Every structure is written in structure tokens, then in C-alpha cells.
Amino acid sequence: MSNGTAAAIVVGVDGSPQSVEALRWAARTADALGAGVKAVGAWEYPPEYAGYVPLGSDNFDEITRKRVDKAVHEAFGDDVPAGLSTSVVFGHPAKVLVHESEDATMLVVGRRGHDGFRGMLLGSVSAACVTHASCPVLVIHEDPDAGRGAQDRPA
User: Where is each UspA domain found (predicted)?
Assistant: First the structure.
């Protein structure tokens, strides 16, 4: 973390349930570390757009902003933690988050879940963050009990 920069926990937000949970984890951890939370959404043009759609004529930035705002609302409702900021950045999510980690106290990302053997593997963005981030990385896995009532959970 560079001098003069306020401590921040950066959270990669893509709107998935794991990224919403990552926001919650970051907020709980921020108090203990005396840090703020920075929710970051990243976007880039899909590869097929390059030859077919004039660049700059879409609304990916706006869609990503809405996705980040919705995730913050899902995580906290109207009780948004003090010190939480949001940003939307153009670029590949892994590259954006690794860059954001340079001034971060911690990076928190969600891992999209898969069943079976594939479920033991990290996704490409979370794996890149773990490998290349400049700070500690917390990867939030999908809650296997999500959507199940307490009576349905194993004892």
C-alpha cells in the first residue's frame, strides 16, 4: 500500500451471489483492519464485438454500474457501511483487480461454483488474483447450504 493512501479492502463485484457474499465479508473485516471497502466492477468488450459493433456505442459501463449497485443493495440493503465506495473500470476483471490490489490492504473475490471435481478448482479471475495480487486475497466460495433450510442441513 502506498504512503498517503487510505487502507481499503477491494472487492471484485460481478453480481454473482459469491460477489455479494464477498462484499459482506469485506465489510465485516474492514472494521478490524481499520479499512474502507471499495467495490469494483470491471467490464470489457466481448471478443465478438470487435468486428461488428462500433466501439463506444454500447452501454456496458452503465450495465456494470447497475450490477455493482444492485450487489451492494443485496449485501447491505439500506444500511450501507460507512467508508464503502464503488467504481466501474474498463478492462479484463483479473487485470483490473490485480491492479487495484497494488494499493489495497486485502482483495476479496468470489469464486463461481461448479459441482463435482470442477467445484474444487478456482475460476480464472480468482486464480489470477491469488497468483498475481500485491496483497492478501480472500476467495469466497459458494455456500453449499444456500437455499436450504436449517432442518435440511447435515448435523
Answer: 9-141
**Cross-strand bridge partners of residue 110:** 140
How many Cβ atoms from other residues are within 10 Å of residue 124's Cβ?
A: 12
- Asked if residue 152 belongs to a domain, the reply is no
154 forms beta bridges with none
Place 66 in a pLDDT band, splitting at 50, 70 and 90.
very high
Q: How far apart are CA 115 and CA 142, in angstroms?
A: 10
Q: Quote the domain boundaries for residue 80.
A: 8-46+56-140
CATH classification at residue 112: 3.40.50.620
Q: Are 9 and 29 in contact (CB under 8 A)?
A: yes
Domain count along the chain:
1
